[in-house]
Design a protein that fits this description.
By secondary structure, this protein is of the alpha+beta class. About 70% of the residues lie in helices and about 10% in strands.
C-alpha cells in the first residue's frame, strides 16, 4: 500500500510538472508569437514608409533637377549672351526683356525668371516693373555671389523659401554667367512654385496604411509645404511631434538625415527623410493601432490553440505517468534490498532487465549494480591483502629515496657554485665583446664616411675632367678658327700686288696721255693736266701699296709665329693638363677601390664580432637557464623530501585503510 501511494505521488508530480512546464511554454509561445508578429508588422510598416519616403525624395530630386535644367536653358540663350557682351546697349537689353517674357509664358509653375548683372541689378525680368531694382546689397552680396562661383558649373540651388512677392513657397535657383576668360559677368535666376510638386503626392497610397498622413516640412519658414490635409498647406507647424522631427534633422550630422520617431503617447510612428537639395523634410505618420490591427487576430488564434494544446498535453501526461509508474514497485523493493546490503540476485525485476524503457533501464542498472557490488567486494578483499604487502615494499623504497635525495642536494649545491663562477666569466667576455663590437661599428661608420668622401672626390674629378676635355676641344676649335682668320690675312699680299700692277699700268697710261696731250698742242693742255694728276695719284698708290706690302710681309712672319704658339698651347693642354687630370682620376679610383676593400674587410670583421656577441649572449642565456634549472632542482629536492615525509604518512594511513576495508567486506551478505 505504501508503494502504491509513492507511485501515485510520482505520477502526480510528473503530471503537475509537465502541465506547469507546458503552461509556461505555451504562455511564452503566445507572448513571443504576438510580440514577434507585432514587431514584424511594425518593421514592415517602417520599411514600407521608409521606402516610400526614399521614392518620394527621388521624385523631388528629379523635379528639382528638371527645374535646374530649365534655368540652364534660359541662361544659355543668345539673347542673354548678347546682353552681357554688349552691356548698356538698349537694343540688346530690349531683346533680352522680350526673350525673358516669352520664355516665362512657357513656365506656368514658376513665380518668375530674371537676368541681372554681377552686382544683382535686374536687367530683364518676367515682370517688367522689376527691371532696374537691386536684389542684394552690402554684406549680403558677397555670400550670394560666392555661392555661385564656388560651384563648378556656376549653378546654385538655394532650397525652398517663402517668397515675399507671392507669399508662396518657391525654389531659389540661380546660375552665374561667365565670359570667355571665365570671369563672372552676370547671373540668371528664377523660382518654381513648390505647390507644383503636390500633384506628385496626392495619389500616394500604402496598402494597410490607408489613414497614413504624408507631409513636407519647411524648417526655414516653419510651415507645411505639403500635407494630406489640404487645409494645413503653407500653415505654421504647431504639432509638437513634427517640431521634434525637425529638431532631430537639425541635430543630425548626416547630409541626408532619415529615421523613425515615436510620438510621446506611443500611439503613432513618424518616418522622416531630409532632402538637402530643397532643404525640406518629408514625413509619414501612421497609427500604431492601424499597423498592429492584424496582430490581434493572430494573437487570439494563438491563445485558442495554446489552451487546446495544454489540455491535450495534460490528459496524455496523466495516462502515460500511470502506465509508467506501475513497474516501479518491484524496482523499489530491489533497491530496498540493496540498501540492506543484500547482494543476492532479485528475480522480481528479471522480466524488465534488458528492456529499452526507463523502467527496464532502471531494472538493468539495479541488477548490474548488485553484480558490480559483488565483484567490488571480492576485489576489495584482494586489494586489502595487496595493500598490506605493498606498504612494506613502499617503506623500503622511501628509505632508499631519502638517501638519493640527500646526495642530489649536495651535488646540486656544488653545481650551483660552478655555474655562478662560469656566469661571472661569461659576463666579462660579453663586456669585452661589446667593446670590440662598438669599436668595429665606429670604424665601419668612419670608413663609410671616407668611402663617401672618396666617391664624391672621384665624381667631382670625373666631372672636372669631362669639363676640361670639353673646354680643350672648344679651345682647339677656337685656335683653328683664329688660324683660319690669320690665313685669310695672308691674302692681303695678293691684293696689294694687284694694286701695284694697277698703279703701274695707270702710270704708263698717264705717260701716254701726256705724250698725246703734247701732240695735241693747245687743245690738249687740259687733258695734260689730268694726265699729270693721274700720274701723281698712280705714284701715290704705288707708294702706299709698297708700304702695305712691307707691313703684310712682317705680319705674315708674325702669323707663322702665332700659329707655332697655338700649336704649343694645344699640345700643352692635351699632354700636360688633360693627362694630369686623367692621372688624378685614375688615382682617385684606385683610392676608392682600396677603401671599398677595407670597408668589406671591416664588414666581415663586424659580422664575425656580431656573431661572437650573439653566441656569447646565447651562452649567457643558457648559463642563466642552468642557474634557474639548478634552483628548480634544489626546489624539487626540497619538495621530494617533503613528499617522502607525506608518503610515509600515507603508508601508515594505507595500513589503517586496509584494515577498514576488511571490516567493510565482512559486513556484506
Amino acid at each position: 500500500m505504501v508503494i502504491t501511494m509513492k507511485n501515485m505521488k510520482m505520477a502526480t508530480i510528473i503530471t503537475v510538472s509537465v502541465g506547469f512546464i507546458s503552461l509556461i511554454f505555451l504562455a511564452l509561445l503566445t507572448v513571443g508569437v504576438g510580440n514577434n508578429v507585432s514587431a514584424a508588422l511594425q518593421d514592415n510598416a517602417i520599411g514600407i514608409m521608409t521606402t516610400a519616403l526614399e521614392g518620394q525624395s527621388s521624385v523631388i530630386e528629379v523635379y528639382v533637377e528638371e527645374q535646374g535644367v530649365t534655368l540652364r536653358e534660359f541662361g544659355k540663350a543668345n539673347a542673354v549672351v548678347d546682353l552681357f557682351n554688349h552691356p548698356g546697349d538698349p537694343a540688346y537689353q530690349e531683346a533680352a526683356q522680350v526673350y525673358t517674357e516669352r520664355f516665362y509664358t512657357g513656365l506656368p509653375d514658376w513665380e518668375g525668371v530674371y537676368i541681372s548683372d554681377w552686382n544683382t541689378q535686374v536687367l530683364a525680368h518676367s515682370n517688367p516693373s522689376a527691371v532696374g531694382m537691386v536684389t542684394r546689397k552690402g554684406d549680403g552680396l558677397a555670400p550670394y555671389l560666392q555661392s555661385m562661383t564656388s560651384s563648378p558649373s556656376g549653378f546654385y540651388n538655394g532650397g525652398a523659401f517663402m517668397s515675399p512677392a507671392s507669399g508662396q513657397l518657391i525654389l531659389n535657383l540661380r546660375m552665374a554667367i561667365f565670359d570667355e576668360k571665365g570671369k563672372p559677368v552676370g547671373l540668371v535666376g528664377g523660382g518654381p512654385f513648390l505647390s507644383s510638386m503636390n500633384v506628385l503626392f496626392e495619389k500616394l497610397e500604402i496598402s494597410g496604411l490607408e489613414n497614413m498622413e504624408f507631409a513636407i516640412l519647411d524648417a526655414t519658414d516653419g510651415v507645411y509645404t505639403y500635407h494630406t490635409d489640404n487645409t494645413l498647406l503653407v500653415q505654421p507647424i504647431e504639432d509638437e511631434d513634427m517640431l521634434a522631427v525637425l529638431n532631430l534633422v537639425a541635430e543630425s550630422e548626416d547630409e541626408v538625415a532619415s529615421g523613425v520617431y515615436y510620438t510621446a503617447d506611443k500611439e503613432n510612428i513618424i518616418a522622416y527623410r531630409y532632402v538637402p537639395s530643397i532643404n525640406l523634410t518629408l514625413t509619414m505618420k501612421a497609427s500604431m493601432d492601424e499597423i498592429l490591427d492584424d496582430s490581434r487576430g493572430i494573437r487570439a488564434t494563438t491563445i485558442f490553440f495554446g489552451v487546446l494544446t495544454f489540455l491535450m498535453t495534460l490528459l496524455s501526461t496523466v495516462v502515460t505517468s500511470m502506465l509508467i509508474t506501475r513497474p516501479l514497485g518491484r524496482v523499489n523493493r530491489a533497491v530496498n534490498e540493496l540498501s540492506d546490503l543484500c547482494l543476492g540476485e532479485n528475480t522480481d525485476i528479471l522480466p524488465y532487465v534488458g528492456k529499452r524503457s526507463e523502467v527496464g533501464q532502471i531494472s538493468t542498472s539495479v541488477s548490474m549494480l548488485s553484480y558490480t557490488f559483488r565483484d567490488i567486494i571480492n576485489t576489495l578483499g584482494d586489494c586489502s591483502d595487496s595493500m598490506n604487502g605493498c606498504s612494506a615494499v613502499m617503506q623500503k623504497t622511501v628509505a632508499a629515496l631519502t638517501g638519493c635525495t640527500t646526495e642530489n642536494s649536495d651535488a646540486t649545491a656544488a653545481l650551483s657554485d660552478n655555474i655562478h663562477i662560469t656566469t661571472q666569466t661569461i659576463q666579462q667576455v660579453n663586456g669585452n665583446v661589446a667593446e670590440i663590437n662598438q669599436i668595429t661599428d665606429e670604424s665601419k661608420e668612419a670608413n663609410a664616411h671616407r668611402i663617401q668622401v672618396a666617391g664624391e672626390m672621384m665624381a667631382d674629378t670625373s666631372s672636372r675632367v669631362d669639363a676640361l676635355n670639353e673646354k680643350t676641344i672648344q679651345t682647339e676649335r677656337d685656335i683653328k678658327t683664329a688660324m683660319s682668320y690669320l690665313q685669310e690675312l695672308t691674302q692681303i699680299n695678293e691684293k696689294v700686288r694687284t694694286i701695284q700692277d694697277i698703279a703701274s699700268e695707270t702710270s704708263i697710261l698717264a705717260v701716254n696721255a701726256s705724250v698725246e696731250a703734247a701732240r695735241a698742242g693747245e687743245a690738249g693742255k687740259g687733258f695734260s693736266i689730268v694726265a699729270s694728276e693721274i700720274k701723281t695719284l698712280s705714284q701715290t698708290s704705288t707708294n702706299a701699296a709698297n708700304e702695305i706690302y712691307d707691313i703684310c710681309t712682317t705680319m705674315n712672319e708674325n702669323i707663322v709665329k702665332i700659329e707655332a704658339c697655338f700649336e704649343e698651347i694645344i699640345n700643352f693642354i692635351r699632354t700636360d693638363i688633360s693627362g694630369g687630370f686623367a692621372n688624378m682620376q685614375t688615382m682617385a679610383g684606385r683610392l676608392k677601390d682600396s677603401m671599398d676593400e677595407a670597408g668589406s674587410e671591416l664588414e666581415r670583421i663586424a659580422e664575425i664580432v656580431h656573431n661572437i656577441k650573439q653566441e656569447a649572449a646565447s651562452f649567457d642565456s643558457i648559463v642563466t637557464r642552468n642557474e634557474q634549472n639548478v634552483d628548480t632542482i634544489t626546489e624539487k629536492n626540497r619538495i621530494t623530501r617533503s613528499m617522502v615525509a607525506e608518503l610515509m604518512a600515507l603508508i601508515e594511513k594505507n595500513n589503517s585503510i586496509a584494515l577498514g576495508i576488511n571490516r567493510i567486506v565482512r559486513r556484506f551478505k
